[in-house]
Amino acid sequence: MIDELREYQFTPEAWEKYWHLFESLCLPIRGDKYGKLQGLWQERAGDSVTFRHLWRYDSLDERARLRAQLIKVDAWREGFLPQAAAQVSQQFLQVLIPRFETAIDSLAPVRYLHKYRCPTGKAGAVIQQISTAVAEGRSPVCGLWATEFSDPNQVVVMGAGPVAPQVDVQASLVVETRSLKPLRVTRT
Question: Is the pTM above the cut of 0.70?
C-alpha cells in the first residue's frame, strides 16, 4: 500500500477558484475509482495558500494504472485539468509508505504536519523511535510514513498536536512543522 501526498500552492484568489473546481469537478469525476481520498488540508501563510490532499493506492503500479485510466476521461482531461492548472502556482507530490495502518477516521483530528529531514541512512531509526513512542502511548500520532519519493531520507508524521514526536539519532535532524486546517467536502 502507498499514499500520495499532493501539495499545491495558490494565491488566495486562485485558491477560491480551484476549491470550487475541486468540489464541483475533481471529486465527482474521481470519486474513489482512481485512488481513495484519505484527507484534505489547507495552510495559509501570508499571501499564499497551500492545499494538501492524501490519496491511497494498493501499490505504485496500481497508482500508475489508475492515473492512466483517469487521463482518458474527457471531463477530467478537457474540463478539470485545464481550468485547475491555470490556478496552481506550484505543485509537489510525495509517494509515502505507511508505517502503521492509517484509516481515514484516524486522520480526522490532524492539525499538524511534521516532516523530519533525516541524515542519509537515519530515516529508519527515526521511524522506529516514533513507532515505539506511539506504541507506548507517549506520542499521539495519527499517521506515520516513510518517504519513497522524492526524498527517501524524509519521514512524514501527521498529528493533532503542534509538538513533533521527539527522536534521538545522534546526528543533525531538521523537523519542519506546519499548521493545517482540515477541509470537508460534500460528496454526492
Answer: yes
For the chain, domains (ranges, CATH) are: 2-96 (3.30.70.100), 97-182 (3.30.70)
User: What DSSP letter does each residue of 121-183 carry, written as one string?
Assistant: T-HHHHHHHHHHHHHTTSS-EEEEEEEEES-TTEEEEEESSSSPPP---SS--EEEEEE-EE-
For the chain, what percent of residues have pLDDT higher than 70?
A: 96
**DSSP bridge pairs for 58:** none
CA-based nearest residue to 73, from 34, 17, 24: 34
> 118 — phi, psi (to 5°)?
-95, 150
Q: Is 35 left (phi over 0), alpha (psi -120 to 50) or beta?
A: left
Which residue in this structure is represented by grid cell 495552510?
43
How does strand 36-45 pair with strand 48-57? antiparallel
**pLDDT reported for residue 60:** 97
Q: With H, G, I as helix, E, B as strand and everything else as coil, classify residue 71.
A: coil
138-160 per-position pLDDT tens digit:
888 999 999 999 999 999 999 98
